[in-house]
TrEMBL record:
Belongs to the FliQ/MopD/SpaQ family. It is a multi-pass membrane protein. This is Flagellar biosynthetic protein FliQ. The gene is fliQ. It comes from Alishewanella agri BL06. The chain crosses the membrane at residues 14-39, 51-70. Keywords: Bacterial flagellum, Cell membrane, Cell projection, Cilium, Flagellum, Membrane, Transmembrane, Transmembrane helix. One of its GO terms (biological process) is protein secretion. Role in flagellar biosynthesis.
Amino acid sequence: MSPETFVDVLRDSLFIVILLVSAIILPSLFVGLIVAVFQAATSINEQTLSFLPRLIVTLLALIFGGHWLVRVIMDYTIDLYQSIPQVVG
């Protein structure tokens, strides 16, 4: 395995990880920001008020995006297995 091939595989895998994590985390981040602004405007300092909406949005992102997440991981895994003869040979 040449160093260029290893770098390409590493780059692709890191891109997939960043893509999948951001698909789950970014909706939760936006909801957390909206709740934080609401809490600052109303002076409500309840911890569960910020935690529960973020949890629900994260679960909804996993429910609605789960099929896409698994498809991306499977496509990458299939591409990785199909590239084994090129890497070894």
